[in-house]
Amino acid sequence: MSGRPFFLTYKIKYIILVLPSVLITFYHCIMKRISLIEDDFEIRKSLRSSLSESSKMEIEFETDSLEKAILFYRTRMAPHLFLLDINLTGISGIDGLPLLRRHFPDSAVVIHSIVDDEDQVFQAICLGASGYLLKNTPHDEMEKNLLIVLEGEGSPISPSIARRILNHFCNERRTIFSPKKDTLTETERAIITLLMDALTYQDIACKLGMTIDGVRYYVKKIYTKLQIKSRGQLARMFMETPAKHALIQS
């Protein structure tokens, strides 16, 4: 009987020692972890202060460059979401987006930028961004928008950007029967080359570091510029008209 109190005391001490680590582990399991990549200290400070009151997410790491973020997470569990600025020193947000998607495929990436240019928005979405929020987004809406991504309910886009995207597609629809033959971009030329090598959309996406939807978006633009409707027409165009090869070499 004399050994029982000692045993109970030992168990109580063990529980007291272990309980904090158990609670911390439980806390991290229910909290969504955010990695903030932003080169403006005041904006980082403001977001940190705003999200510190959240019971559902936390900023576990913040940095002023994408390179530092990749280095930090090489030996750690990836965050649930990267909140990424575009105009960064070093690797820009647009150039770094494919790197984040490749290194941390299970982490969502939401762009947080002052840039509202529709080409940048389309490029970010094609490269795998899960949302695009302007820096003038009210703080009380930021948590709600990020939760939409984290809970898999959608891809938030700032209202002013959404309006411009809708206007873009309305204008595109009006000109679809008389498309302008613009010069092909470097990405479009690269995709044409890979299409002519008989690669699938999946293979092209892997090679160029973008999503399949991104490849489809660029292929649609290529078809519109060249006034064609299929890969077969594209192949015939480049086989029957050698001069067309200048389009992907220029």
Structure in words:
The protein has 250 residues and is an alpha/beta fold. The protein has two domains: 31-168, Rossmann fold, CATH 3.40.50; 180-249, Winged helix-like DNA-binding domain superfamily/Winged helix DNA-binding domain (Arc Repressor Mutant, subunit A, Orthogonal Bundle), CATH 1.10.10. It is 58% helix and 11% strand. It has twelve helices and five strands. The protein has helices at 3-30, 41-51, 66-73, 93-103, 118-126, 139-150, 159-175, 186-196, 201-208, 212-226, 231-240, 245-249; strands spanning 32-37, 57-63, 81-84, 108-113, 131-134. A five-stranded parallel sheet has the order 2-1-3-4-5, with helices on both faces. The radius of gyration is 24 Å and the shape is elongated. The model is unreliable at 22-27 and 175-181 (pLDDT under 50).
